[in-house]
Amino acid sequence: MVQTTTHAQFDLFQQRRRTLVALIQRQLEVLDSLDMKGPQETLHKLKTRVQADSFKVLVLGEFKRGKSTFINAMLGAEVLPAYAKPCTAIINEVKWGEPKRALLHYTNSTDNGAKPAKEIPVEKIEEYVVIKDNVGEIKENPYEKLELFWPLEICKDGVEIIDSPGLNEHEIRQKVTMDYLSTVDAILFVLSCEVLCSQSELNFIDNNLISMGHEDIFFICNRINQIRDKERESIKEHAFSKLASLTKRGKESIFFIDALGALEGRLEPNKPDEQQRLNQSGVPELEVELATFLTTQKGRLKILQPAKEVKGAIREARRIIPERETLLRTDLKTIEERYEAAQEPLRLLELERHQIVTRVSNFIADTKPSVHQKAQQFYQELSETKITQWMAEYQIQEPVKFLKLEWVTTQIEKVVEEVKNYLAQRIETEFATWQSSELQPFLNDRLQSLMLELDQRAEAFVKNVEDLRVDLIAGTSASQGTIIYQEAKVSLLERVLATAGGFLFGDAVSGVIGAVFGYQEMLKSLIPQIGIMVATYAFAGLNPFILIPAIVIGGLVQGAWKVQSTNDKIKAAVTEKFINQIRTDSYQISDGISNSVVQQIGKIKDAVDQELGQEIQNIRDQVDSILEEKQKGQENVEQKLHELVSIRKNLDAIDSELDELIAQVATM
Length: 668
Known about the structure:
By secondary structure, the protein is of the alpha/beta class. The protein contains 21 helices and nine strands. A nine-stranded mixed sheet has the order 4-3-5-2-6-1-7-8-9, sandwiched between helices. Helix 15 runs parallel beside helix 20. The protein is globular and about 100 Å long.
């Protein structure tokens, strides 16, 4: 019953998406008949994006939380390895496919030599995704991700399950996980009721998820069946107190499950006892909530946002039709004369476009050293004061004790690991605070200023474009219509913002946020995106001094004559290593942070350049198209005029059906 319900939810979404794709195709045919090459290319990309889009669900969790078992329970098959040791070394993407296939993707090489994906036997997956004990071997792992194509119902419904590396394992895996945060539709964070809400888990949620804009996290508290009945309510209350405030959905996003019971129940569906375990596991109820969330909240965006872009294309087509009609009724010689006279205004528009793009380039050039300086100051404070203060206050939780039945070397290694992890978490928290309190406000203020200026200059640019359009159509800008001008103005600004969002986020989501609500809303999406890129680079840069070399431990063993002095020496040695490495690498890391910021802002420049250029090219395309039709003779002209009547009716039908779809989806 549960699987039927979730399938029906996904099926309804897929039906509506197919309706949207069909409407996009009909609008593409309209644009083709009007020779609107630029908008046609943009809409074709939108169609491809909508068709290829899927619901991406990222599953996160620390080691020994039952993450792989939980994913297998959702899939209803033992697809991913699940062992009592660190397992996942690379990202696993589970998608629909029949027959079963496994594609291994190589990490991009430094010489930009892209290797084709390697197909491997599905029975040998473990050889590639299981982590080896030697840290050095992990560093040399040549693979980036594994794509698994499996005939699973949940994947057939358009859901892609992404299995991430364990968060408390090697930092390389954490970086890989960070790379996915900007593209996923839902995050499922797996915890264990046996060790619920560790400080490292809460730190990661706060510093890496919430600070990056994820407000709808699903918290999966696994192994509730391992908790004694009389203690379960207190465990649940503890989870609510720690997690409810970390997700916009509150308690509704906290689930208590038995992943192993659900898996075994699905592997043995004909056994009554196993089926009962599945029904009591809590997983089916979670799946219904997840399906509802994906198909309503996320599904609504996946349809409404592209639909609004189609609306813009319809508006553009409606503007072009009377222009084409007027030009088709104008004699050929007059059009040629006007087009010749328009060459100088077109050249001036190109010059204006170049000046606007140059302004954005100068803005980027001015921003980079400021970001670099702020990052340098942050690392300087860490190395000069904060790390020393933290370690002076820190008490080792499991200090070295000579009377313990454990080798001193082993004890020292554990203390080094404890101190190292403590400092790494403190730096991560401090970095998140710096980002939200200093870097993001600084960037927001600067980008607000830039967007306001672009808004004003784009308005002036549109006015000049519209004057030229009217000169070409009517022979004088004095006859310019207010409605036509306003529609043209809105259309250009929407396209610039939408294209910027597409460049920044790789999809239509934030582009249409900008298109519909303006640059203020787009900035709200842009700033967290920049934050993800900055954090990814910053924490990748921390790796060298988080990995304490063996020589430090060896030196501590040789000097381990007194218990207290040994523990103090460990703290001092690790502190010194952190501080020295920060001082050594801070300039390089700061440079990487500033580069990641300007790289993102640079995509705004690319969008501005592309859309202003397309606006100019649209004028040339339309006039060239009319000249070609006129040169074919009057009979052809009459036919084209007759076709415009049909195109109008077709546009009205597309617009009406699109409105109906939007109304249906808006009430999801």
